[in-house]
Design brief:
With 547 residues, this protein is mainly β. It is 8% helix and 40% strand. It is globular.
Length: 547
């Protein structure tokens, strides 16, 4: 949407005052009385610190939101995440910790030596967890793509004073913003390690587990890979200190590991897409001297091929088949599952990483030199990975035997299997969600996501995609911008889409925000809960329903 929406910048306006105490919303329609939990949302809420401004949508200081359901009523509250990034920014009235698109200033509390060293070794990595939530057992943590998840209290949205440090406990310099949870209650994530060369480590959190920990004690000379390992018995409630590494996947480049935001998991496998957007580690290590943020360290290579890695969950063994596909950029895996000797992998994709540049705040608020904005449309792509590839597999023919798919896979002369994707929906979606509890890692039919209603529009509609019939149902209102749509199953449900879908919506013209509740089957509106006028609600990224 270009010049048509005069108030588009409202979506990216700072929140001046958090709402720690719940306020009742105004209900239109009827909220299901069986809803008794809380919907959590996470996203940026503060884009300025003193005279300084964050530059990218992914940079703003994290603001958590909560919608509570009681007897058909809905209550809203919000609190800033008390991260080190937030506390230091407030203390010094400056942006201290660098973010995705914004460079911070040296921490005034550091010694002269530490300030000098920080120009070569990033000592202050942001813990501004503005992207998502994930659960380990009954505990809820905030996350972004760095190594410092922080637990929160769901009741009052207060922040735990301590945070995980996956760099020290697991050797991870980054971590996916989208952890996965299996049906046994274990939580998995993937992160990049630079110890001995770049690799992607899949880690496992087992709720309540304590035991032996191999802890890397960093000497602050990470660039020289000087690491001491001390093993000791530790009984702790911090799950990262008893986590285990399931598998380590070597990166194709030791100095340019791939950027990623999520990964796939079936009942028996992990699926990791090593795409062609790389992080230049040398630039990243010198970012303070070069005066560049993380975004400028990412390099897209359109001529390269993307790699798929498949890992056995039980053994941590990487399968021997080498899967390849075209260059692409994707942040959100929709789902993956096994079917008749294949893995089906669905992901929201773009042809390159240009979408990241569209999220600079100057562009979002003001547009280009003509005051216009245009955003690329995502594609919902399906890849099919045959598992049974051996010396008898024919070369140069499609070896996908699943019905009802146009995705193909061909063994090449060099021994790699090249995958051609199928676009499974004429409506491109991003920020996808499914009936996660019942169908994550298993064959499914429905996906919910945000879409561009018109060519070049910002995400301004919510869509239900039927992956069997390829038909879509859409909710859309002009000048209204929804967030990720979260599915909540109805008690005693018998169908995959028996429940509701909830999304938060911002009406820029009325400057009115509301929680929208749709019937997941018909996609008709059930209710909306309007936040009181005068309470600003900015765009959010991801969320979690906690019952």
């Amino acid at each position: 949407m270009g010049k048509e929406d005069p108030n588009f910048g409202v979506l990216f306006k700072s929140v001046k005052t958090e709402r720690a105490d719940p306020v009742e919303t105004t209900i239109k329609g009827f909220v299901p009385t069986w809803l008794s939990g809380s919907l959590l949302r996470n996203g940026p809420g503060k884009f300025e610190v003193g005279e300084e401004k964050y530059k990218h949508w992914f940079d703003g200081l994290a603001l958590m939101h909560k919608f509570s359901f009681r007897d058909g009523k809905v209550y809203y509250q919000s609190r800033f995440l008390l991260s080190d990034a937030y506390k230091k920014a407030c203390k010094y009235n400056k942006i201290i910790l660098s973010e995705f698109g914004t460079l911070g200033v040296p921490d005034p509390c550091r010694t002269i030596f530490e300030r000098f060293a920080s120009r070569f070794i990033p000592l202050n990595i942001t813990d501004n967890n503005l992207i998502n939530f994930f659960r380990i057992g009954d505990e809820v943590y905030t996350s972004t793509e760095t190594f410092n998840p922080r637990k929160i209290n769901v009741e009052d949205l207060s922040s735990d004073p301590k945070k995980m440090n996956l760099l020290y406990t697991m050797g991870l310099a980054t971590a996916s913003a989208h952890a996965q949870k299996d049906r046994d209650g274990n939580t998995y994530n993937i992160g990049t390690t630079y110890i001995g060369g770049s690799a992607y480590n899949i880690i496992k959190f087992t709720p309540g587990k304590t035991g032996t920990l191999s802890l890397p004690l960093h000497t602050r000379m990470i660039m020289n890979n000087v690491l001491l390992y001390v093993t000791f018995l530790l009984h702790t409630h911090d799950p990262s200190k008893s986590a285990e590494t399931v598998c380590s996947i070597p990166a194709r480049s030791l100095t340019r590991p791939s950027y990623y935001h999520s990964f796939g998991m079936t009942d028996n496998y992990f699926v990791f897409l090593e795409q062609t957007l790389y992080c230049n580690v040398s630039k990243l290590a010198m970012s303070a001297i070069l005066k560049i943020p993380v975004r400028h360290c990412l390099e897209y290579e359109p001529e390269d091929e993307s790699f798929f890695h498949v890992v056995e969950k039980k053994t941590g063994k990487i399968t021997t088949v080498k899967y390849r596909t075209v260059a692409l950029f994707g942040m959100h895996v929709v789902n993956s599952y096994e079917e008749d000797g294949h893995i089906v992998f669905d992901i929201c994709c773009y042809h390159d990483d240009a979408i990241l540049n569209k999220f600079y705040l100057d562009y979002l608020r003001q547009g280009d030199k003509n005051g216009e904005r245009s955003f690329p449309r995502p594609e919902l792509r399906r890849f099919v990975l045959p598992l049974n590839v051996d010396s008898d597999t024919p070369v140069g023919v499609n070896i996908v035997s699943l019905p009802d798919t146009h995705a193909t896979a061909m063994l090449r002369d060099d021994g790699t299997v090249f995958l051609n994707y199928e676009i499974v929906s004429e409506v491109g979606i991003d920020m996808p969600r499914i009936n996660y509890d019942k169908f994550n890692g298993r064959k499914y039919r429905y996906a919910f996501g945000c879409a561009n209603q018109g060519s070049g529009d910002f995400m301004n509609s919510v869509v239900k995609v039927d992956l069997k019939t390829k038909k879509c149902k859409t909710w859309y209102e002009k000048f209204c911008y929804p967030s990720e749509a979260i599915f909540i199953e109805r008690p005693n449900a018998t169908e995959e889409d028996d429940g509701i879908v909830m999304t938060t919506v911002i009406d820029t013209i009325r400057e009115q925000s509301f929680l929208l509740i749709l019937d997941a089957n018909s996609f008709e509106e059930v209710a909306r809960a309007e936040i009181p006028k005068g309470i600003h609600y900015p765009m959010t990224f991801h969320g979690e329903y906690v019952d």
